[in-house]
Amino acid sequence: MNDPTDPPPARRCGGHPDVPSDGVAVMFVARPRQRARGDARPKGIRRASPEHTQRVRHAVQAVFLLLNVYLGAQFYLWVRYFELGGHGVYVPRPPGVEGWLPIVGLMNTKYWLATGRLPEVHPAAMFLFVAFVLISAVLKRSFCSWLCPIGTLSEWLWRAGRRLFGRTFRLPSWLDVPLRGLKYLLLGFFVVAVGTMSAASIDAFMHAPFGLVADVKLLDFFRDLSAPLIESLALLTLLSMLVQNFWCRYLCPYGALMGIASLLSPLKIRRDAERCVDCGKCARACPAGLPVDRLRQVRSAECVACMSCVAACPVESGLQFALAPRTAADARQRWRRRVAGPATTAAAIAAVLVGIVAIAHVSGHWRTPQPRQLYLELITHADAWTH
Asked: Nearest-5° angle of CA 344, CA 345, CA 347?
């Protein structure tokens, strides 16, 4: 039996055998209550999960890549029909393949603006060129990260390189910035070359043998690669595995044009500074290496609207691809009607592309109206045609 004069045993805090309540004070912090299903969500936009944000974009990339493969296969069969002397099953020429002729599209756009007349040769090249520029002017450089098959392959190579080598590399700014200027120099060369051509010279070029089969000549270029070109493509493939989006970031003049057009876009990646927790995940996720975590809105022509930063943000509505809020006072309440989520962006891209193609069909300027006999003569002697 205990002596009644002994001090009472120390009470244990929370039943813990080693921590007396009259010793050092111990504070317990209650875990935050999980929100029940019926509870109201916090104010703001319901942010899609990171997986959903990128899953939609990847699905659009895959669909457009498969569409390009289908068009390429159909175009190859059309060319082979004429290369075999017009024997076998005739497959109609797919006008959509002219999306691979951006310089022709630029030339035909110049011709249209100068004369007010739609081009007769490769009209689809112009309509697709205008559609892609318009998409970029409305939805940033989403063409590059959502539609362009080269951009898709470049992204796949980067991911493969990260798995193979365990990491990828970012060039230091003293090298990165000058290299980024290369694509603008290439764009400037083509713009000056086309800009100095008269409408009459453009029309003459398009109706010359080389212009009529410019798409066939492009196919021949890839079918008969020289050893130096193969080595260059191999080097470019390796660099694309080591440096994210190497071709798109440093060398693609088409991407440079889309970047300039994207400066007109009312939609931008916008950061809510009040909600930002300064984790830096958005900047690390950006394939263009932009300091998203330090910007209120991303204006840069290098932003391709891939929404990788939005997917990486851990805060609900911390980052959004959106229009500017109408006023600072009602910004929170206005976000919902002014945000372009992944599904909205995909729908807008499809609407612009389908709408432009529909206009081309209705106007009767989607296909080049040339007889088969002319193509038979031109394609069987394609090696003889030069510009």
From this structure: 65
Cα gap 92→100, rounded to integer Å: 18
Residue 263, phi then psi, degrees to nearest 5: -65, -20
Closest CA to 100 of 219, 259, 262: 219
Question: Which residue, among 152, 131, 129, 141, has the nearest Cα to 247 in the 3D structure?
Answer: 152
State the chain's maximal CA–CA distance in angstroms.
Answer: 119
- Single out the residue of 152, 141, 171 nearest to residue 239, CA to CA: 171
Confidence of residue 197 (pLDDT cuts 50, 70, 90): very high
252/150 Cα distance (integer angstroms) = 10
Tell me the C-alpha distance between 322 and 197, whole Å: 39
- What is the C-alpha separation between 297 and 269, in angstroms, rounded? 6
Where in the chain are the domains?
50-263+344-384, 268-339
Per residue in 157-174, pLDDT (tens digit) is 999 999 998 888 889 989
Distance CA(169)–CA(162), nearest Å, equals 9
Q: At residue 329, does pLDDT exceed 60? A: no
Overall pTM surpassing 0.85 (yes/no): no
Of the candidates 175, 170, 382, the one whose C-alpha atom is nearest the C-alpha of residue 291 is 170
